[in-house]
């Protein structure tokens, strides 16, 4: 059986030389919708949550990327977008007070 590479595991969070690592985003209570748990392997969700915590917003547009970077300073909501190895798009949203992070499919919103 051929080995399938996980595209989420291959991507590394962006880093800048000679700078300390970014402060991790506090996720608070982490929840996931039943639909995303059915559609996306749990390991891929865990990898995406780690990327989100490290300010790797995945496949968001440039405007949302800038909004997230600003939200780190102002305490607004954070949104990341990822695709599973099977091609399923899913979102991770951390609320502005950082009390809850939700993993969901766009259709769950």
What does this structure look like?
This protein is an alpha+beta fold and 109 residues long. It has a 4-stranded mixed sheet. The mean pLDDT is 88. The protein is built from 4 helices and 4 strands. The radius of gyration is 14 Å and the shape is globular. A hairpin with a 5-residue loop joins strand 2 (78-83) and strand 3.
In short:
The chain has 109 residues and is of the alpha+beta class. The protein has helices at residues 7-10, 34-39, 42-53, 62-74; strands at residues 29-32, 78-83, 89-94, 100-104.
How would you describe this structure in keywords?
single chain; four-stranded mixed sheet; alpha+beta; 109 residues
Please tally the helical runs, counting DSSP H or I stretches of 4 or more residues.
4
Q: Please state how the strands of the largest beta sheet are arranged side by side.
A: 1-4-3-2
Q: Count up the domains.
A: 1
Q: Globular, elongated, flat, extended or rod-shaped: what is the shape?
A: globular
CA radius of gyration: 14 Å
């Amino acid at each position: 059986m051929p080995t399938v590479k996980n595209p989420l595991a291959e991507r590394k969070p962006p880093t800048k030389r000679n700078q300390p690592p970014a402060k991790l985003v506090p996720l608070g209570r982490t929840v996931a919708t039943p639909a995303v748990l059915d559609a996306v392997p749990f390991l891929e969700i865990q990898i995406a949550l780690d990327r989100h915590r490290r300010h790797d917003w995945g496949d968001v547009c440039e405007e949302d990327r800038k909004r997230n970077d600003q939200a780190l300073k102002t305490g607004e909501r954070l949104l990341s977008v990822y695709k599973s190895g099977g091609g399923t798009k899913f979102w991770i949203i951390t609320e502005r007070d950082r009390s809850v992070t939700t993993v969901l499919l766009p259709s769950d919103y």
